Amino acid sequence: MRKLIYIVLLLHIHVYGYSQSSESIPSIKLIEKTSSDKVLLRWAPDNSISWQLLNKYGYKLERITTYRNGAHLNEVERVILEDKILPQPNDEWTRVFNTDTTDQYIAIAAQALFGNQFKLDADAYSKDGLAQLIHVVKEREARYSYALFSADQSRNAAYLSGVYFEDNTVKKGERYLYRIHSLVPDSVEQIQSGKVLVQVKEAFPLPQPERFAAQYKEGKVTLTWDWLTLSNTYNSYWVQKSQDGVNYYDITKTPFIQPSLNEPSPNMVYMDSIGDQEGTYYYRIKGKDAFGEWGPYVNPIRVEAYPVMEFVPEFKVYEDLKSGSVMLKWEIEEGKALGAKSLLIARSETEDDKGFKIIKEGIPVQTGEYLDIGPEISNYYKLGAKDKVGKINWSYKEFIQLTDSIPPSIPENLLGEVDSLGRVTIAWTPSPERDLFGYRVYRANKKNGTYIQVTTREIPSTTFKDSISIKTLAKDVYYKVLSVDKRGNPSELSAPLQLKRPDIIPPSPPVIAYTKSTERGPYLEWYPSGSTDVVNYLIYRKGSSAVERWELIKEYGIVEGKQFFTDSTVVDLETYHYLMIAIDDANLESIPTKPVAIRKFDTKVRKGVGKFSLNRGAKGIELAWTDPISGDYNIDIYRAVDEETIRFYARVPKGSEGWEDIAVDDDKKYQYRIKVNYEDGSSSKFSESKSIKY
Length: 694
Prior knowledge:
The structure is a single chain. It is built from five helices and 46 strands. The protein is mostly beta strands. The chain has six domains: 172 residues, no CATH class; 69 residues; 87 residues, Immunoglobulin-like; 89 residues, Immunoglobulins (Immunoglobulin-like); 89 residues, Immunoglobulin-like (Sandwich); 89 residues, Immunoglobulin-like (Sandwich), CATH 2.60.40. The strands form 13 sheets. Strands 10, 11, 12, 14 and 15 form a five-stranded antiparallel beta sheet that branches. Strands 18, 19, 21, 22 and 23 form a five-stranded antiparallel beta sheet that branches. It has a four-stranded antiparallel beta sheet with strand order 4-3-6-7. The radius of gyration is 61 Å and the shape is elongated. The termini are far apart. This is Fibronectin type III domain-containing protein.
């Protein structure tokens, strides 16, 4: 065999599926590719030790027919396709290599299988990253990886390495189970067989790579595509480039290998550096499967390359004193703004980059100016140059502060409330000035009193929370607000906001100043409470009995000055107790006054007779009346004849409701009155006078 030259490939290789298996028993992996008249088989052990042993002892390939003419076979048919498959001898390697000396993977596989030494120099491959992932592994691992990689890239290399078989004896419509067995004695190493089930049918064309995209930035084109979706189809890719969309040339000298399945990103990335070149470029890719066959090219992508923008604009700012606007001016020399497509202006009230907002964009790249008619009092400006893809080169910041001596407007529409704990919330309408800095809040206990600032600094909010004492005699609290702009100009104080404090202090009680007993009943003189918020006064009464309760007998509204009250609803001779309570507008009650005891004055006048009348009788003058209901008494009758003085005439006992005066003469006028005399010495008043002529 002609000496094979060890060819150094600028490849980026990793062990993709052929590394040491995590299973405890080594195994052989078998894959297939089927068409209507043949089946292609590829296999590989899952670790380098098994690979070395199988290169020595070989493989056995078996085919089992399980299905034919639309039905499963009752007895399967077994055929040994190859009883021992080993790497081909040197003569065969030489013959195949001489038929295609451009197939460098044959040389790589030969060096991996038969070379005396197989050392990797990481520095030699650093440009394209060859062996960056495996340059520290043992020589056996390196031989194993390169041999299987070469078999993936070249069908001839796979055939010569003893990991490929082409079955041309298949029939369309039949189903086969292929099994590849290890001929390594179990005493040396147990290796599980590989198997694959095949249905002979028309071959499907290989697919185009998916989601192919390109992006240009600063002299570099980044190509990306989805490798994960077709990871079971393609193991490497080829990248081509064109400047006219017709004539393409390779920009990958070796296949571009897909990442490991453990990689987090589903995208492959290839970067093409074009430097300062400008113009239109076209890119396309195709994939290669494990049988060394290329799939179709993807539809090409067009990329526009443009120069890197290095231009940074400069500008000046000026204040327009008449309008209060800011003028920005800049100059751009011809040919100095290469790559810039437009200008834009940003403004901020602070120097912090996060505060800048764009106020104008799409400005032509030429000498010009811009009038900012809505600036703040303090302004930072930046002028930016934007390139084709949106990259912006910003100028240095320029600061300008406008002249301002006009105070902001006075806050209006103050509203507020105070809760039961003395917590105050007030709010007002925002001031319209754009340069407003904040507000100050002031408080007083009197409307025209001294207002004290209760905010420690200007607040930006139009609401304010305060806390006040509610244990005070001041019933109201007053607030005023002023606004301050960013130059420190204050407005005048707002109109006062009057808020009522929650009332938790009961009113002072009224004063009962004088009492006495009268014929009409107990009499009181009293003075109103000293509290100004009293709206009601209540008088309560109860009798002398311990079981009696206080009852409300009189209610007053708001009164002024000394007041008088006589209780005419009491019973004679009984003692009664009286007290008063004041109630304020918060419905709080004063403490009761000290009870006073009063009884109705006893005039000794008692109840007299009722329904007194006179009638002429057969023997004299008949007197009739109704007696009092209770008591021990006698009834005295008084009489006068003609013009005589009326005097006591007769006495009748209790229970008599009539009496006849028989000592009368004709043609005389008789006048009568009746009085009741009680056993305790009291008496009634005289009844009304009644007269009759006999």
